[in-house]
């Protein structure tokens, strides 16, 4: 059953977020040969349209307005609903990001659509799109189908493989003018209190530190290895509570949920609250002095040792590999 699917692309810090391309790939599956339409909302976003097309969108619609420079649920909802009225899609896909988690339930309610959030996999069987999503803090997975109305899904970053970029692909780029009004929130300025470097939610490699790093200074070896691997640095709640790092780095039930290709846990005991945020990582490496630490139960590889000895050794070895590669 061919479907038209509308995909929300997200621009952040002057570039399209990788989850936008993952959402396009998910939309291709849902569309079953139908049309995938990208959507970009902001004050100056048209220049990113072709990149969405290169990653699989058939065409792109943009909504540009000075009032849409910063995200507000009212403004973006008005823009989205205007495009929806023009396109009348059978499917909608967002990234499961801060924007997606805030806006998608509001839109789903207005459109009376069945929303499946935090999707990690999807397939088509017998004309039905089957969505897989984690439940019970990642301890189990459930499969869902939407039996009636619009298919609306948010996809978790780093779980849906992107399509191969094809710069020879071309498609129509059009714009819709929306009179954005009656905003209940006006954003004057946005200050991001976060560490420099790769976005945790989209990082392919994460070096995470727990109470075992002992201090803010103790995160330096982790940052050095993260830089070598092109990754990001995260932390357990214990490390954040101890003021070793900012809460923006927290991974776990009350922090970020991540699914990198490689997760290296350093000095982290493995409390259930932390595991809820990282247990679905593709490969988990644990470094801890305590051989009985719970983190080893979920690790694919474990190193019993002092992180301040092990991590610098790993850094040197990976540097050698980079030189010879």
How does this structure look, described?
The chain is globular. Strands 7-11-6-1-4-5-12 form a 7-stranded parallel beta sheet, with helices on both faces. The chain has a 5-stranded parallel beta sheet with strand order 14-13-15-16-17. The protein has 2 domains: 5-175, 3-Layer(aba) Sandwich (Rossmann fold), CATH 3.40.50; 200-324, TPP-binding domain (Rossmann fold). α5 (220-229) runs parallel beside α9. 29% of the residues lie in helices and 26% in strands. By secondary structure, it is an alpha/beta fold.
Tally of extended strands?
17
Distance between the termini: 46 Å
Can you name the CATH architecture of the largest domain?
3-Layer(aba) Sandwich
Gross geometry: globular
Mean pLDDT: 94
Strand content: 25-35%
Total domain units? 2
Which homologous superfamily in CATH is the superfamily of the largest domain?
HUPs
Assembly status: single chain
Which residues form runs of ≥5 with pLDDT under 50? none
Task: Please outline the major beta sheet.
Answer: 7 strands, parallel
Please provide the ordered H/E string of secondary-structure elements: EEEHEHEHEHEEEEEEEHEHEHEHEH
Category by helix and strand content:
alpha/beta
How many DSSP helices?
9
Helix content range of the residues, please?
25-40%
InterPro entries: DHS-like_NAD/FAD-binding_dom (IPR029035), ETF_a/b_N (IPR014730), ETF_a/FixB (IPR001308), ETF_alpha_N (IPR033947), ETF_asu_C (IPR014731), ETF_asu_C_CS (IPR018206), Rossmann-like_a/b/a_fold (IPR014729)
Keywords: Electron transport, FAD, Flavoprotein, Transport
Domain Electron transfer flavoprotein alpha/beta-subunit N-terminal: 5-195
GO molecular function, one term: electron transfer activity
């Amino acid at each position: 059953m061919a479907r038209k699917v509308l995909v929300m692309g997200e621009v952040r810090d002057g570039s399209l977020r990788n989850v936008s391309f993952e959402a396009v790939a998910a939309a291709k599956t849902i569309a079953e040969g139908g049309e995938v339409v990208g959507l970009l909302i902001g004050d100056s976003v048209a220049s990113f349209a072709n990149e969405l097309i290169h990653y699989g969108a058939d065409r792109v619609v943009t909504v540009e307005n000075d009032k849409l420079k910063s995200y507000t649920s009212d403004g973006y909802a008005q823009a989205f609903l205007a495009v929806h009225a023009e396109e009348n899609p059978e499917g909608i896909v967002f990234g499961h990001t801060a924007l997606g988690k805030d806006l998608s339930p509001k839109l789903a309610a207005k459109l009376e659509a069945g929303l499946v959030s935090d999707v990690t996999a999807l397939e088509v069987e017998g004309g039905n799109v089957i969505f897989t999503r984690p439940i019970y803090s990642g301890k189990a997975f459930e499969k869902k189908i939407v039996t009636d109305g619009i298919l609306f899904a948010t996809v978790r970053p780093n779980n849906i493989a992107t399509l191969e970029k094809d710069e020879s692909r071309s498609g129509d780029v059009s714009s819709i003018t929306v009179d954005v009004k009656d905003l209940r929130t006006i954003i004057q300025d946005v200050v991001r209190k976060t560490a420099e470097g790769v976005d945790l939610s989209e990082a392919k490699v994460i070096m995470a530190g727990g109470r075992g790093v002992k201090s803010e200074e103790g995160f330096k070896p982790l940052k050095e290895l993260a830089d070598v691997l092109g990754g990001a640095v995260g932390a357990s709640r214990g490390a954040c509570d101890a003021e070793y790092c900012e809460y923006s780095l927290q991974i776990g039930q009350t922090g970020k949920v991540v699914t990198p290709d490689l997760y290296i846990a350093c000095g982290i005991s493995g409390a259930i609250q932390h595991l809820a945020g990282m247990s679905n990582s593709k490969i988990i490496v644990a470094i801890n002095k305590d051989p009985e630490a719970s983190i080893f139960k979920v690790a694919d590889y474990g190193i019993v040792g002092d992180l301040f000895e092990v991590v610098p050794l790993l850094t040197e070895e990976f540097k050698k590999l980079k030189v010879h590669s």
